[in-house]
Amino acid sequence: MAPEKSDSEMTSQQWKEEGNAAFKESDWEAAVRCYTKAVQLCKEDGPEKSVFLKNRAAAYLKLGENEKALSDCSTALDLVPDDPKSLFRRCQALEALDRFEEAYRDARQVHTVDPGNKAIQPILARLHGIVQERLKLMSQTSNKVAKMFEIAFDMTADKEKREVALNNMVVLARENSGSQVMFKEGVVSKIASLLKLEKNEQIFLGAVRVIGELCKENLERTKSILQDLGVPWFLDILNCQKEHQVNAAQYCLQTILNTLSGLTNKPDSKPKPELCLGRDAIIELIMRNVHYSALDWASRLVEIRGLQRLMEVASELKEYNYESSMEITDSTRSLVSVCLARIYENMYYDRARQDFISNIDDYVKGKLITPELESKVRVVVALTSLLLGPLDVGNNIVARDGMMEMILVMAGTDDILQQKVACECIIAASSKKDKIKSIIAQGVNILKKLYQSKDDGIRVRALVGLCKLGSSGGTDASIRPFADGATTKLAEACRRFLISPSKDVDMRRWAAEGLSYLTLDADVKEKLIADKAAIQALIELAKTGNQAAVYGVVTTFVNLCNAYEKQEVIPEMVELAKFAKHHIPEDHELDDPDFVSKRLIVLANEGITSALVALSKTESHNSKELIARIFNAICSEPDLRGLVVQQGGAKALLPMALEGTEKGMRQASQALARIGITMNPEVAFPGQRNVEVVRPMITLLHPECSALENFESLLALCNLAALNETVRKRIIKEQAVAKIESYMFEDHDMLRRAATQVITNLILSPDLVKQYEGKNDKTKYLVLLSADEDLDTALAAAGALAQLTAVSKKCCRKVVDVESWQETMRSLLGNPDSGLQFRGVYITNNLMQSCKEVAERLIETDIMEILMALSLLEDGDEKVKKFALEALKSAEEWKLIKKPGAVSDEENEDDVE
Do 223 and 188 contact (CB within 8 A), yes or no? Predict the structure, then answer.
């Protein structure tokens, strides 16, 4: 026997044959890999390469990768024009991509070059009907568009009729036929002319939205529109103070950027209603496009010194009643902090990060070199934004000689403006323990003095500074930087600011930030959770959508839920630390699970979910992580999950599970999994959402996730897989099967059981059946698990095997090829559990009916005797008896056994007594 060739020794023809074998086994991925090797090795463009390409296209079609199939077929047709198979497969790909006219063209060509091709005839008839219907629709659409144009662009027509016409045009632009007709009829130039004169806001907005819809996911049309209108046109409509106009313009611009970069609009990418000025909208556009997977603007912003411009915006002093050169909102500085953090996150190598810091350095030095007090104040304001954004960069600046001293001097002056900005900077800088110690030593007395100020703005900032310093011990009950009872008094002071109706939103958000530090103390948590007025004030503050309030409110809720990250306590390490006389953190008795559970119930009943939904619109990934932590903590209580869904929590969690920090996505995914376990997925995740939620569940099937996360994900996937074939296909398409199956090998009973139950539901999909029919041991492992010691695991495995053998003769053959298959079947048929016994007799019946070869294998064993006994049991389960008799009947039909009382040809009277 000749030795097998290595991959490097195989020819293109041999790779094609390997691909054909894989294709026959329904292993589409392997087929694609083999055909790709064949294409790469084929040096000449000609008929041979055309075969490889159209074969690969067939595999791509099976995988649903229609664009790739289309490309391969087109290339194959360039090599061999009018090849029927290439045309046929391109027709299939085009139809799947809803390009019906082109598909119809190819179908007609197949019929022309291969008139005897019967497979193309039903496709040709179907496509003919579709194309005719689309032509009819296009004609109707042309008439509609003509009427709408006549009304919408007539300045003398009735205002309400024009508004309705523009709104109808927006709807029509979302349809392929409508957008084609309007674009062809010159709607872009008509809108450009209209908006030069139009004063009606609703008509103006409708026209801008039409442009946005025309640009969505259509590259050629977007390029044409940009060329016709010009970028300045979009910036002009963005540069105004009308909230709705800015929102429409921002969405339009983001759609254009997405189309040009090949991205799609995400569910949460719509403009925030609170961003009512163009500057905030532009900052948000920058944030969305700095990531490498978007347009990768981060490095470009550093190159063109865009950081200095952002720092200039961050240094604005509007909230201090100081003359400002820019029009900014209450959210602008918070957005700049997040934007700077997002840019810094995308500095992936040391040199890039150094360039980022150098740019910030240049800005700071440029301000400090001038003698004006305003420049120094602006530096401190901008530094606060840095400390709330890219913390490492902010700490780097604060650590410079004389910087903290300058801030403390400002805090100690009698000038209200300097006191405010210095207080804020001290609060932001008190993040690392080494800095807190020095600030406590130098700044506590200054903060106490400022707290005596008659100006509420100074008092509340000084109060927050004291709160942050007083909470530096974190959750460690043994550390108290201030005297006993001081934190409770500070909390009461924060509460007064928070619930006072005379205080504005800015005052209340500072009070919330103070509580965010103090609620690390369990005594403060218990006192606050009993204060319904304060809880409601926090929730109402969250609902305002004020970006600056997000951190304080969210962190307070995180602390109340004990949803902060906890370091794992290893008993051996604790003993070692005691031996070395190191400090051992102590948990407060009020942080026991019972107290936490009660706090979660109170928060949920007070309506925290609606507050979290409002807060989830923030652009800060860190804030989203905290929000996800709260959601997850609430969802840890099964009785609260329905309330979370009812108030929109599941909808808010989905985008957070798909984008954000790694920990934030995990927390959101686990919360969704917990909802999916308790509730009917059709109710919890209605419509398309039950497909979109699949990916977050799968992310929890990772070795770095905890066993609890793995288990909850499997339970939720099990419920989802039971919904419909669309969901099952998505689970399979997301490459989840291999991950799920890996848990079927776990020693942990609950994980093994849950994974097997998911496969039981997934096996309903023909796509998974094809996988089990391939060259692998998947079926073998189901046979082995059917005899598992854990009853529920055995029930699930046997259930999957029952469904599999009912639809696949190949898998029936695989069952009897397993070495221990007889032991497994005896175990099932003789099991005292009626559920297992029924599954056993059902599988046996499937095996017997599958083919004569498998039936003969059964006859050779004592399984037939067991079936006979089961069929005769007087007090046996009726369903078991029914399928036992059916199996025996199948054996008779295969003529492997004789009917009772029948006399064979070999018998004679001498044999009868």
Answer: no
Q: Whole-angstrom distance between the N-terminal and C-terminal Cα of the chain?
A: 59
Per-residue DSSP letter, 833 = S
CB half-sphere exposure, 62, CA atoms < 13 A:
21
Burial of 311-324, coded b for 16+ CB within 10 Å and e otherwise, reads bbbbbbbebbeeee
DSSP codes of every residue in 553-581 = HHHHHHHHTT-S--PPP-HHHHHHHHHTT
DSSP 649-668: HHHHHHHHHHSS-HHHHHHH
pLDDT at 674: 95
> How big is the chain by its Cα radius of gyration, in Å?
35
DSSP 304: T
Burial of 876 (C-beta count, 10 Å sphere; 0-12/13-18/19+): middle
Flag whether pLDDT at 272 surpasses 50: no
C-alpha to C-alpha distance for 374 and 618, rounded to whole angstroms: 31
Instruction: Supply the DSSP symbol for 789.
Output: S
CA–CA separation, 702 and 673 (whole Å): 14
- φ/ψ of 75, rounded to 5, equals -65, -40
DSSP notation for 426-446: HHHHTTSHHHHHHHHHHHHHH
**Amino acid at residue number 459:** R
**648: number of Cβ within 10 Å:** 15
Query: What would the two tokens of residue 816 be?
Result: 């009897």
Whether the model pTM is above 0.70: no
User: 867-904 pLDDT, tens per residue?
Assistant: 888 888 777 778 888 888 988 888 888 887 765 544 44
The residue assigned the tokens 């400390």 is 387
- Smallest CA-to-CA distance from 117 within 140, 143, 75, 89 is with 89
Buried b (16+ CB within 10 A) or exposed e, 584-597: eeeebebbeeebbe
Q: Do residues 46 and 79 make contact, with C-beta atoms less than 8 angstroms apart? A: yes
Residue reference for tokens 């990934």:
621
Nearest to 609 by CA among 654, 566, 653: 653
Lookup result for tokens 């009950």: 477
Q: How many residues does the chain have?
A: 913
